[in-house]
Amino acid sequence: MSRSQFTENTLKTFFFAFIVVFVVAYIPYKIVTAENHTVIAGLAGFRLSGYIFIGLGVIGYLVCFRNFIIDAKGSPMPGDTQHLIVKGLYRYVRNPIYISACLIFLGEALLFQSLEMFYYFFGGIVVFHLLVVFVEEPFLRHKFGGTYEQYCKSVRRWTPRFKPPG
Fold first, then answer.
1. Residue 128, helix vs strand vs coil
2. Interatomic CA distance for residues 119 and 79, integer angstroms
3. What is the mean pLDDT of each run of 10 residues along the chain (166 residues)?
4. Residue 125: what are its φ and ψ, rounded to 5°?
5. pLDDT score recorded for residue 164
6. Which residues make beta-bridge pairs with 114?
7. What pLDDT, on the 0 to 100 scale, is given for residue 127?
8. Could you tell me how many helices (H) and strands (E) the chain has, helices first?
């Protein structure tokens, strides 16, 4: 990959990261600071575990961003990869970037003891699943053909397989 391609992919990844920050930080901030925000007092003992989920989600994002720039020779922008990613977290699960977002949503829900953030967490799961099933997977099947089919047979969509295939 040339230096200009690397720079372009890095800039696209930063743009995608800006979108991610909007979805995982700004919208949740607006939710938990709203006047009608509902606090679930019974979750007080689990608040600190929210930091763990948020930390895992952030680490997951950073690892995935690296995979997109270095391994896929592209960015996380839809349709912008030259190669199918089968390294890093993608060896264990097909959608680690969405799982990372959901970990952050769950962490925020616990940290802020927020009923609305739990709704946001579950809504994110539904939206990501529909996006993957009806948009991303058909696109990747078309772009990468049999290679993607084989990948789907050996790596699960949502639940990690901790013993990577071959």
1. helix
2. 29
3. 71 77 90 91 90 96 86 71 86 94 96 96 96 92 92 93 66
4. -60, -45
5. 54
6. 39
7. 95
8. 7, 0
- pTM for this prediction: 0.86
Q: Is residue 88 part of a domain?
A: yes
Domain extent at residue 25: 3-154
Q: For CA atoms 94, 140, 27, 36, give the dihedral sign.
A: negative
Number of domain units in the chain: 1
On whether the CB atoms of residues 22 and 88 are closer than 8 A, the answer is no
30 Cβ contact partners less than 8 Å away, ≥ 6 residues apart = none
Query: Is residue 132 within 8 Å of 95, Cβ to Cβ?
Result: yes
Assess if residue 38 is contained within a domain.
Answer: yes
Residue 26, domain CATH? 1.20.120
